[in-house]
C-alpha cells in the first residue's frame, strides 16, 4: 500500500517517546531485581542466618569469656572487659560470610549457565555487578543487625548510635561483597574460589586489631596491621559502639604514629577501596564472554 492508498481519515503518527519515569525504572530495574533475588534467598533459608551467627557468637562468648577469666586469674589483664573489646570484631566477622556468598553464587551461576542468561539480558553489565553487590551488602547488614540485637551480653547500650554502627557494617559488608565479586569474575572453579576466599579472610580478621590492640606491636606485625583495610573498619565500629570505656580508651584506639585518625577518615578509606574494587570487578565482568 502506498501513501496515496491511505484513507484521508487515517493519520500517521510517531510513537510517543518513553516518559522520564519509564526511563528511570528501566535504569533502576536490574539493581532492584538482583537485590530482590538475594533477599528472596535469605527469606527462604532462615537456617542460613542462624548458622552464619554461630561462629561470631562462639568467637565472642567462648573466646572472650575464656581469655577474660584467664587474664583475671593470672593477674595479667590489660583490658577491663575483653568480651566488649571482641564485640566489634565479631560484628565484622558476622557480615563477611553472607557478603562473600554472593561471589560463590556468581561462580555457580557461571557453572550452571545462569550467568549466560544475565549476559544476554538488555541491562548494562555494570548494573548486574552493582545489583549483586547491593544485595550481598544488605544481606550482610541483616546478619550484623541480628548480632547487634544481642550486644547486651558484651555491655553494649541500646541507643540511636547503633544506627550509625549499622551503616558502618553496611559499608564493610559492601567491601567484602566487592572482593567476593572480583574473585568470582576472576576465578572460574568453585573449589578454587572457596580456597582463595578462606585463605584471604582469616588473615584479614587476625591482623585487623579485632583480637588485640593495634598499637605497641612488633615492627613487622605493626606494619601488616596498619596496611590491612579491615583494621580501619573494626576501629571505626569499636569507637562508634555505645558501651564500656574499653571501646574508646587510648589503649585500644588505632594510632598512626602520633595521629589518631577520626572515624570519618577511616570510613573514607573503606569507601575509596570499595569503589576501586567494585570498579575493577565491573570492568572484569564487562569483558566476560
Automatic annotation (TrEMBL):
<keyword id="KW-1133">Transmembrane helix</keyword>
<keyword id="KW-0046">Antibiotic resistance</keyword>
<feature type="transmembrane region" description="Helical">
    <location>
        <begin position="161"/>
        <end position="183"/>
    </location>
</feature>
<feature type="transmembrane region" description="Helical">
    <location>
        <begin position="195"/>
        <end position="212"/>
    </location>
</feature>
<feature type="transmembrane region" description="Helical">
    <location>
        <begin position="46"/>
        <end position="65"/>
    </location>
</feature>
<dbReference type="InterPro" id="IPR013525">
    <property type="entry name" value="ABC2_TM"/>
</dbReference>
<keyword id="KW-1003">Cell membrane</keyword>
<protein>
    <recommendedName>
        <fullName>Transport permease protein</fullName>
    </recommendedName>
</protein>
<dbReference type="InterPro" id="IPR000412">
    <property type="entry name" value="ABC_2_transport"/>
</dbReference>
<feature type="transmembrane region" description="Helical">
    <location>
        <begin position="85"/>
        <end position="108"/>
    </location>
</feature>
<keyword id="KW-0472">Membrane</keyword>
<feature type="transmembrane region" description="Helical">
    <location>
        <begin position="129"/>
        <end position="155"/>
    </location>
</feature>
<keyword id="KW-0812">Transmembrane</keyword>
<dbReference type="InterPro" id="IPR051784">
    <property type="entry name" value="Nod_factor_ABC_transporter"/>
</dbReference>
<dbReference type="InterPro" id="IPR047817">
    <property type="entry name" value="ABC2_TM_bact-type"/>
</dbReference>
<dbReference type="Pfam" id="PF01061">
    <property type="entry name" value="ABC2_membrane"/>
</dbReference>
<feature type="transmembrane region" description="Helical">
    <location>
        <begin position="263"/>
        <end position="283"/>
    </location>
</feature>
<comment type="similarity">
    <text>Belongs to the ABC-2 integral membrane protein family.</text>
</comment>
<feature type="domain" description="ABC transmembrane type-2">
    <location>
        <begin position="47"/>
        <end position="288"/>
    </location>
</feature>
<keyword id="KW-0813">Transport</keyword>
Amino acid at each position: 500500500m502506498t501513501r496515496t492508498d491511505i484513507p484521508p481519515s487515517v493519520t500517521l503518527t510517531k510513537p510517543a517517546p518513553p516518559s522520564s519515569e519509564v526511563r528511570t525504572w528501566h535504569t533502576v530495574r536490574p539493581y532492584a531485581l538482583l537485590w530482590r533475588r538475594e533477599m528472596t534467598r535469605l527469606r527462604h533459608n532462615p537456617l542460613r542466618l542462624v548458622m552464619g551467627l554461630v561462629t561470631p557468637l562462639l568467637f565472642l562468648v567462648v573466646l572472650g569469656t575464656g581469655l577474660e577469666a584467664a587474664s583475671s586469674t593470672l593477674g595479667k589483664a590489660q583490658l577491663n572487659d575483653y568480651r566488649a573489646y571482641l564485640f566489634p570484631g565479631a560484628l565484622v566477622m558476622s557480615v563477611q560470610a553472607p557478603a562473600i556468598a554472593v561471589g560463590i553464587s556468581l561462580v555457580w551461576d557461571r557453572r550452571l549457565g545462569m550467568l549466560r542468561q544475565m549476559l544476554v539480558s538488555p541491562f548494562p553489565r555494570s548494573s548486574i555487578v552493582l545489583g549483586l553487590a547491593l544485595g550481598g551488602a544488605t544481606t550482610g547488614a541483616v546478619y550484623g543487625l541480628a548480632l547487634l540485637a544481642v550486644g547486651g551480653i558484651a555491655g553494649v547500650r541500646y541507643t540511636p548510635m547503633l544506627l550509625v554502627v549499622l551503616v558502618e557494617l553496611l559499608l564493610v559488608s559492601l567491601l567484602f561483597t566487592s572482593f567476593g565479586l572480583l574473585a568470582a569474575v576472576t576465578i572460574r572453579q568453585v573449589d578454587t574460589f572457596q580456597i582463595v576466599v578462606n585463605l584471604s579472610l582469616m588473615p584479614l580478621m587476625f591482623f585487623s586489631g579485632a583480637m588485640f590492640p593495634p598499637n605497641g606491636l612488633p615492627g613487622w606485625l605493626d606494619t601488616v596491621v596498619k596496611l590491612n583495610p579491615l583494621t580501619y573498619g573494626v576501629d571505626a565500629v569499636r569507637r562508634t559502639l555505645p558501651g564500656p570505656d574499653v571501646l574508646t580508651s587510648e589503649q585500644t584506639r588505632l594510632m598512626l604514629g602520633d595521629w589518631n585518625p577520626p572515624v570519618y577518615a577511616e570510613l573514607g578509606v573503606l569507601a575509596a577501596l570499595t569503589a576501586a574494587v567494585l570498579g575493577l570487578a565491573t570492568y572484569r565482568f564487562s569483558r566476560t564472554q
